[in-house]
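> example.struct
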C-alpha cells in the first residue's frame, strides 16, 4: 500500500526523522562543548602560551666583533655600520615570487637567491633571514620609501672592514659568511644569529675571543606582523679587542720592498719571540671575502700562478741554502769536529775519496785557506762540505733540530708547515731508500732534502743571536674587553739549547759580523751608512740540481727555475733586539737581491727607535 494518503504512516516517518535530527544535533553540540571545554579549561595554559608565542618571539642579539690593532694601537680590523636585506618566512606568502620581485627591483641577484636557500636551514621560520649584505644606501632609501614587500625588511648591522686592505692579510686573515662546516666548530647557542666567522689567520685562531657572547631579545608583533615592542632579556657582550705584536710601519715597508715579487719577510723579537713583521707576497684584499667574494675576484685568485693565498711565511718551504751555515758551523764546534783555528783549503770544488763527482763551490776560483769565521763570512761551500762529511747526517740532524728545523714553530695562526730536517731514518721511512754520503755534503749547505719556512729561519737566527733560547713565536700581545684596560698576554714559551762552550757561539756570531763588515764578506755593501751594528748571512738556494760540471747561468733558465735569494740577520750585535729572515723566489743572489731589502726593513725599526729616543731627550730638556 502506498504511504500517500496515509496520515498515520506520514506522522510516524516525520517523528523518526525528528528524533534522528535531534540525536545528531545533540551529538554535534556535545562534541563542540567537549572541544570547547578542552580548549578553555583542560589545555588553557598550553594554548595561551601558543597564542602568546605568535605575538612574542625570542631572538638572538649578535655581539659586536672585537677590533684588531698593531703593537702601537694602529687599527688593523674594525667594524662599520651598514645595512642588510632580510626576509621572515612566516610573514611571506610566496617566497619564490617575492625573491623574483626583489630581483626585478634591483635589490638582489641570482647569487643572493641561491645563498638565501642555502642558508635558510640555519634559521627558524620567524627569524629574519639575511638575503643581501652591505646594501647600497640609495637602494635602501628607495626601499624604505615604498616598501611593497610584506615580511621583507632593511636592518642595520656591523660588518668587518680592513682599512689597510691587503696589508698584513697573511697574519690577520679575514672573516666571511658562516657555512655548514663552521656551525660544527662553534657553540650552537652562542653562534645563533651569527653571520660571519674568521676563516684564516688571527681572525680564525682567536675567533671565540673576537666573537663575544650572544644576547637574547624578545620582540612583540601585532596582528599584521609589525614589531611593536622589543625587550632585551640578556644583553650581548662584545668580543675582545686584540693587540698584535705586528708593527704596521715595518709591515708596510716589507710589503713595499717585495712588491711585484714572490717572497716573504719575517722579523721577530730576539728577547721574547714576538713577531713584528710577517709578510708574504703577492697579497690579496681580505675585504673581498667579508660579504662573499665576487666571481671575478675569486677567479683572479684561483687562476694566479703566484698563489696569493699561500702564506709563504709559514707554509712556503724552501731549501735554506747558505743561511744554514752558521748553525752547521756551531754544530761542528760544539761537537769538537773543528775548532776556531781549523782551516780547510778551498780550490773551488770538493771531492770525496773514490768518488767521481765534483761538488762545486759557488766561487769557481776557490777561497783558498779559510777558517770557520772566514767560511761563514765568505760563504765557502767547500768548508761546509768537508765539515758535514766529517759529522755525518745523523749528527748534523741531532744538532740542527735543536734550532727547531724540521718542526713547526707553534706560531699562533693556523696552517703552519714544519719543513724537513733529513736523516738516515727519515729517508728510509719517506723514500724507502738508503742515505748516500754525497747527500750529507749537500745537506751541509742547506740543499737537497732539507727545507724550512722563512719563519723557521727567523726563529733559528734569533736563537743564535740570544745564544741558545728558542722562543715560540707569537702574534697576540694583549687583549682588551671594550671599556676596560688593556691586559698583556703571558704566552711566552721558550726552551734553551744546551751550550757546551759559549765561545763557540761567539765565534759563529763573529763570522756573521764579518759577513757585513769584512772586506770579503758577502753582504759587505750593507754596512755603508749603517747606524746600528748588524750580523748576517746571505744565501742562494737552488731550485733544481745541476750536473757536476755544469755552471749555473740564470739567463739560461726560465724564471721559475732560477735560484731563490735569501738573507738572515740580527741587530744590534752587542745587545740583539730583532732577527730577520727574507726570501725572494727565483731572484738569484742573496747578497744582491735579498740583503738590501732586509736592510730597508731593519732601518724602519731603528729609525723609529732613534726618533723615539730623540723625542724623549727633547722632553727631558724642556
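> example.seq
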Amino acid at each position: 500500500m502506498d504511504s500517500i494518503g496515509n496520515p498515520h504512516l506520514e506522522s510516524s516517518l516525520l517523528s523518526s526523522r525528528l528524533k534522528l535530527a535531534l540525536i545528531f544535533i545533540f551529538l554535534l553540540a556535545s562534541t563542540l562543548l567537549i572541544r570547547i571545554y578542552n580548549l578553555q579549561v583542560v589545555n588553557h595554559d598550553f594554548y595561551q602560551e601558543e597564542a602568546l608565542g605568535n605575538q612574542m618571539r625570542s631572538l638572538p642579539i649578535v655581539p659586536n666583533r672585537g677590533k684588531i690593532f698593531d703593537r702601537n694601537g694602529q687599527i688593523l680590523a674594525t667594524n662599520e655600520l651598514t645595512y642588510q636585506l632580510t626576509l621572515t618566512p612566516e610573514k611571506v606568502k610566496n617566497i619564490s615570487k617575492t625573491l623574483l620581485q626583489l630581483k626585478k627591483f634591483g635589490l638582489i641577484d641570482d647569487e643572493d637567491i641561491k645563498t638565501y636557500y642555502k642558508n635558510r636551514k640555519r634559521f627558524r621560520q620567524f627569524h629574519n633571514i639575511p638575503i643581501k649584505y652591505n646594501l647600497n644606501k640609495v637602494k635602501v632609501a628607495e626601499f624604505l620609501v615604498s616598501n611593497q614587500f610584506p615580511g621583507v625588511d632593511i636592518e642595520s648591522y656591523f660588518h668587518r672592514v680592513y682599512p689597510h686592505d691587503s696589508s698584513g692579510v697573511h697574519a690577520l686573515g679575514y672573516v666571511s659568511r658562516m657555512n655548514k662546516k663552521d656551525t660544527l666548530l662553534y657553540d650552537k647557542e652562542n653562534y645563533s644569529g651569527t653571520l660571519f666567522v674568521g676563516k684564516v689567520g688571527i681572525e680564525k685562531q682567536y675567533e671565540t675571543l673576537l666573537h663575544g657572547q650572544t644576547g637574547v631579545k624578545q620582540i612583540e608583533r601585532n596582528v599584521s606582523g609589525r614589531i611593536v615592542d622589543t625587550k632585551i632579556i640578556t644583553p650581548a657582550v662584545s668580543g675582545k679587542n686584540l693587540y698584535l705584536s705586528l708593527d704596521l710601519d715595518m709591515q708596510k715597508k716589507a710589503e713595499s720592498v717585495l712588491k711585484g715579487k714572490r717572497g716573504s719577510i719575517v722579523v721577530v723579537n730576539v728577547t721574547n719571540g714576538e713577531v713584528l713583521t710577517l709578510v708574504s707576497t703577492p697579497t690579496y684584499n681580505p675585504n673581498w671575502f667579508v660579504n662573499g667574494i665576487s666571481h671575478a675576484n675569486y677567479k683572479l685568485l684561483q687562476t694566479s700562478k703566484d698563489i696569493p693565498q699561500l702564506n709563504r711565511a709559514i707554509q712556503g718551504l724552501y731549501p735554506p741554502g747558505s743561511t744554514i751555515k752558521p748553525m752547521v758551523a756551531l754544530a761542528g764546534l760544539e761537537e769538537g769536529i773543528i775548532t776556531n783555528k781549523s782551516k780547510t783549503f778551498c780550490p773551488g770544488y770538493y771531492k770525496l775519496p773514490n768518488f767521481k763527482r765534483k761538488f762545486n763551490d759557488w766561487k769557481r776560483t776557490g777561497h783558498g785557506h779559510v777558517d770557520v769565521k772566514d767560511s761563514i763570512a765568505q760563504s765557502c761551500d767547500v768548508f761546509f762540505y768537508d765539515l758535514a762529511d766529517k759529522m755525518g747526517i745523523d749528527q748534523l740532524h741531532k744538532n740542527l733540530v735543536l734550532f727547531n728545523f724540521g718542526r713547526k714553530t707553534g706560531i699562533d695562526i693556523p696552517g703552519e708547515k714544519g719543513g724537513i730536517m733529513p736523516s738516515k731514518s727519515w729517508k728510509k721511512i719517506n723514500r724507502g731508500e738508503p742515505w748516500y754520503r754525497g747527500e750529507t755534503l749537500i745537506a751541509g749547505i742547506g740543499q737537497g732534502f732539507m727545507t724550512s719556512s722563512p719563519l723557521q729561519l727567523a726563529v733559528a737566527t734569533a736563537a743564535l743571536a740570544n745564544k741558545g733560547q728558542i722562543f715560540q713565536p707569537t702574534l697576540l700581545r694583549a687583549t682588551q674587553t671594550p671599556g676596560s684596560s688593556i691586559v698583556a698576554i703571558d704566552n711566552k714559551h721558550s726552551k734553551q739549547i744546551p751550550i757546551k762552550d759559549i765561545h763557540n757561539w761567539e765565534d759563529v756570531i763573529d763570522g756573521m759580523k764579518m759577513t757585513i763588515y769584512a772586506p770579503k764578506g758577502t753582504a759587505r755593501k750593507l754596512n755603508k751608512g749603517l747606524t746600528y751594528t748588524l750580523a748576517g748571512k746571505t744565501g742562494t738556494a737552488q731550485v733544481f740540481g745541476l750536473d757536476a760540471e755544469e755552471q749555473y747561468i740564470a739567463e739560461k733558465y726560465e724564471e721559475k727555475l732560477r735560484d731563490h735569494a735569501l738573507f738572515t740577520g740580527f741587530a744590534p750585535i752587542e745587545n740583539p733586539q730583532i732577527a730577520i729572515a727574507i726570501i725572494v723566489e727565483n731572484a738569484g743572489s742573496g747578497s744582491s737581491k735579498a740583503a738590501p731589502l732586509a736592510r730597508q726593513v731593519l732601518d724602519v725599526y731603528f729609525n723609529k727607535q732613534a726618533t723615539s729616543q730623540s723625542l724623549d731627550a727633547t722632553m727631558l730638556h724642556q
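> remarks
The domain at 248-283+313-476+486-613 is CATH 3.40.710.10 (Beta-lactamase).
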